[in-house]
User: Which sequence fits this backbone?
């Protein structure tokens, strides 16, 4: 992609090659212009093309340049927010509908991967939400209660079982989610784009949308050397939004998150650490995550940006933490290091906006975008085709509301992570 190891790290190194794409250099007419080539945009393109609509994706940089190509690769069901709290935020109708959609979203991801033959290191062995201390365990017990009341097949594991599965003695228990799993996120988004192209969509890269204007009953969106005229525009730019949709950016506080990948572990270590390749994260406020890739590299992440003073602080902390979590790791050497920005909304719930007539989009996934982006992309295709209307959406239509003290909060996140990691105030 950009050959910048700090942006896409291991994923750029190990991803399946992207289908060849070009910059838009013509005036094109389509049914739908899709702005942004991440999970949401490519899923919308695939599902529109499958419905016989002409869809054109305009990506500012490369496929997966945003969160899609930088993330941990956990295919989660649901949201961060406790299930029982969602109806309180969204109302009962939208809350339960959204929970249902996102609970099933990992299955949708698996199905698309299978149907489209996407090669993306998918592991279907679930995820483990790991309890740190008795407080963490209490939180997981409550999550377990709320999900099982909704029929979700989650299992609460004790400390011994958590140790057996992770290879770490550090946790008081775990919540196992068999719906979930892991994948190589850049390979997945590239595969989605290739599937969309095979179904008839056009994908242009190095084509940032810089402006839009009314054209008949639709819109003309303009890039530096071309334009697309379409009845509908889907805005799928989320935390990496540039150009005319600054409002998307202003509604979110960006949480920096980094990942470090070790060299492939020896076969003995692989047997003792995540032998089943579950994806993991913990209950700490400044959380950590870890998972394996298919070559046996342990990928460890947490809050923080690998730049300026943060780079040395976060990497030193990660080395210490890994040794503490997995005493069997004698030496920890990182082969890849990268980071990105997670778009957080004020209530940790995503948004659906109508920016103008026939200009719509989902955003603000709060660190959960693989399964939600795929599912919301499909919803957008149904909505644009008239199969569903506002009343059938998984989220209510809301106005864009800029967050107050956004820049201060972003500074606070990074500073807070550096202080926590410097102090080593971790398990
Ligand atoms: C470090 C990190 C770890 C994460 N871990 C996970 C995880 O384990 N599991 C999970 O589910 N989610 C995770 N996420 C969140 C997930 O990556 C995002 O929610 C997801 O990528 C959002 O998908 P998207 O398609 O909406 O947006 P993105 O993937 O961000 O794509 C938006 C695209 O729009 C393009 N764009 C912006 N402006 C314009 C413009 N004007 N014209 C044209 N193109 C434009 C950008 O270049 C970008 O490629 C993580 C995110 C980060 C950063």
Assistant:
């Amino acid at each position: 992609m950009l050959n910048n190891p700090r942006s896409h790290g291991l994923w750029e190194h190990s991803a399946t090659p992207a289908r060849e794409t070009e910059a838009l250099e013509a005036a094109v007419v389509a049914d739908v212009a899709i702005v942004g080539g991440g999970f949401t945009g490519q899923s919308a393109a695939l599902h529109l093309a499958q419905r016989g609509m002409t869809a054109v994706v305009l990506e500012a940089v490369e496929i997966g340049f945003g969160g899609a190509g930088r993330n941990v690769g956990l295919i989660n069901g649901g949201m961060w927010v406790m299930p029982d709290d969602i109806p309180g935020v969204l109302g009962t109708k939208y809350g339960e509908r959204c929970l249902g959609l996102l609970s099933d979203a990992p299955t949708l991801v698996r199905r698309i991967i299978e149907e489209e033959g996407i090669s993306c290191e998918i592991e279907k062995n679930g995820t483990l939400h790991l309890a740190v201390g008795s407080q963490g365990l209490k939180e997981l017990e409550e999550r377990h209660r709320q999900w099982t009341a909704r029929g979700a097949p989650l299992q609460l594991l004790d400390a011994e079982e958590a140790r057996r599965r992770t290879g770490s003695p550090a946790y008081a228990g775990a919540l196992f989610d068999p719906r979930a799993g892991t994948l190589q996120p850049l390979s997945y988004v590239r595969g989605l784009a290739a599937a969309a192209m095979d179904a008839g969509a056009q994908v242009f890269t190095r084509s940032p949308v810089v402006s839009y204007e009314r054209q008949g009953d639709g819109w003309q969106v303009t890039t530096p050397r071309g334009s697309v005229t379409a009845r509908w525009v889907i805005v799928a730019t989320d935390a990496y939004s540039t150009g005319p949709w600054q409002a998307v950016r202003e509604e979110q506080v960006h949480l920096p998150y980094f990942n470090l990948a070790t060299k492939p572990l020896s076969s003995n270590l692989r047997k003792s650490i995540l032998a089943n390749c579950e994806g993991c994260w913990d209950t700490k406020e400044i959380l950590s995550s870890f998972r394996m890739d298919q070559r046996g590299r342990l990928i460890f992440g947490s809050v923080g940006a690998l730049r300026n003073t943060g780079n040395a602080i976060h990497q030193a902390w990660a080395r210490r933490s890994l040794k503490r979590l997995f005493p069997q790791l004698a030496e920890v050497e990182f082969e890849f290091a990268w980071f990105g920005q997670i778009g957080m909304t004020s209530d940790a719930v995503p948004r659906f906006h109508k920016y103008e007539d026939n200009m719509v989009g989902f955003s603000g996934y709060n660190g959960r975008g693989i399964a939600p982006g795929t599912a919301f992309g499909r919803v957008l295709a149904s909505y644009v085709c008239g199969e569903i209307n506002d009343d059938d959406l998984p989220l209510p239509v809301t106005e864009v509301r800029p967050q107050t003290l956004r820049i201060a909060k972003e500074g606070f996140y990074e500073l807070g992570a550096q202080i926590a990691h410097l102090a080593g105030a971790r398990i």
Q: What stands out?
A: The chain has a mean pLDDT of 95. The first strand starts at residue 27 and ends at 35. The radius of gyration is 21 Å. Residues 354 and 360 are 4 Å apart (CA to CA).
